[in-house]
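Notebook, p. 212. Picked up where the previous page left off. The plan for this session was modest: take the two constructs that came back from the sequencing core last week, fold each one, and keep the raw output in the notebook itself so nobody has to go hunting through shared drives later. Recording the first one now, exactly as returned: residue sequence, then the structure token string.
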Amino acid sequence: MRRRALGAISAAFALTLPWVVVWGAADLLPRLTGAVLPGGGYEAPAVFRPSTLGTVIVTGLAVLGAAFLLAWAAETAEKDVPQAFAIAVLAVLAVAPEYAVDALYAWNAGQFAGTPRGIEAGNLAVANMTGANRILIGIGWAGVALFTIFRRGASSDPAVETRPGFLADVVVLDREIGLEIVFLLIATLWAFLVPLNGGIDVFDMLFLVGLYVCYIAVILRGDVEPDMDHVGVPAYLQHFPKRRRIATILLLFAYSGVMIFTAVEPFAHGLERLGEGVGIPSFFMIQWIAPLASEAPELIVVVYLVNKARSTAGFNALISSKLNQWTLLIGTLVIVHSIALARYGVLAFDYKQAAEIWLTAAQSFFAISLLIRFEISVKEAVTLLVLFLSQVLLEFAIIREFVTIPISSTDVLIAYSVVYVVLGTVLFVRRRRAFSRLVRRAAGTVGDAMSIGEGRSHSADD
């Protein structure tokens, strides 16, 4: 275990090293060599000034490696910090890479409010947020379900059930995830309302962040297992002596935070320039390419768990992550925007981004309808994947004028939203009894957690 853990840690650090060299050369080396520009300031030697594509690659790798290090640090910390703190940290870290890019554009929207640059930044914030969420379901949920069933050794995984019929095999989910499914449904229904006010406002923030706080409160006051069965790097680091372990955790947090903080801006702007160079709108690059780098660590870790026959844990992690992104990520953008604006302000976006939010909410609605019975079949996963890929490819073809159809790309978004909602509604109606049981189970979990919390409060008073 030691060799594998050290190898994984070394690989994650190696992903960040190219950016460390470039970033250090851009600031530290010119000062040491005295490369002063005529107007003041410093310029790095040409060898340390990568092209736009090179900048995107090294910063993207840095974000990727830093995300792994952050996740390992947070899991390791659960051995030494109160559970409430560990869960709060993990909740933030789960959306940290996506939030970093989104926060940048929300900040720019406030800094340049009322200008074309500010309007575009607001649209890009929505584009990245919706892209990350749709990738998580369209590729994450669907892809992991298919990988779980068709991977080698799936027959030994208790989460996989072979059933008669065409593409009928299923992945069975842990019923304890019902609470997350219900909270995610509530957040999804609210998301349909977000564009109606012309942007993300304080009411969205209060509801969505408040919803997540309520979810955390239920988890904390309920019957939560304090000792998680960690594997890989966290398991290795947790065997360190306490002082060495805490020092390692702090080092990983600090190093990863610096990497993400310094790399995210050149990464995002590099993507914009690449898109402009080939005629692709900035929001399309930010919506689909940037989230791939931020989602990759999570998807890789889930695939690792699935490959170790821990399919239930992997799929539950994806569902929990979607809940984090669909509440915290959306709800806190208006806070960042208002701070940059130096007053309260709605994070506005145009009609195209409103359609993007409706489509993202519709996809989430359909995906939730698939999980009502705590299982997802091959047929359902393929449907989810095909709908996602066909929409992205069709929109790209329209933007690049590869195809000519009598509707705009925005109309395509609305059309797919309708398809998702219709399919989801049909499934909710057909599975209404299972949905009723799901809601009762979630309500029972909330009730039990509240009663346990009150019992603890009374005990403390006594």
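Okay, moving on. Second construct, recorded in the same format:
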Amino acid sequence: MRKAIARAKEDLSMIVARDPSISTRGEALLHPALPALWTYRLAHVLHTRGHRWTARILSYLARSVTGGIEIHPGARLGRRVFIDHGAAVVIGETAVIGDDVTIFHQVTLGAVGWWRDDRREPGARRHPVVGDRVVIGTNAIVLGPVTVGDDALIGAGSLVLADVPPGARVMAPAAEIVPRLSAEDREDSAQLLRALATSGCW
């Protein structure tokens, strides 16, 4: 019990330290990461003791009140894991996350799919291992039994399918700025169609 209380206090302090919009522990109680983390810790204990149904129900309840933070009770999270904003974060069953990791919204730490995972040995890892002090940017996707080394940075919008060495940076291509179409190009229906298609304007 003392360990659980100490972890809860540590989580509160971590949110105050890493979220500039939070100034007190009282305010940190309203941060979406907190119920997700606290519920996960309880669900994880239940899961490891064989109470899988209860653990899954708790994780579903947490997801419904945290803007969609889905942490499988079988995942292993370290200390001071910070989930900023929280919306649509998915952490799979065999994922392992180290200490002092920062995860932004819409991050997926997932598997590559049942069509490949069903061919793995029973009990084999299907999800990523994330080292200590890693930062995973918004909408990054890390799939499969890859390892992200300590102090790595996964940039926003990145798709990671292979191991990332410690301290490395993974960056998605930046958006391309395209000049406005000229009057002549706008009259050219083929040119206009290409511009609209690549802009997602269907």
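Notes on construct two before I forget. Residues 176-202 form one domain.
Flagging for discussion at group meeting.
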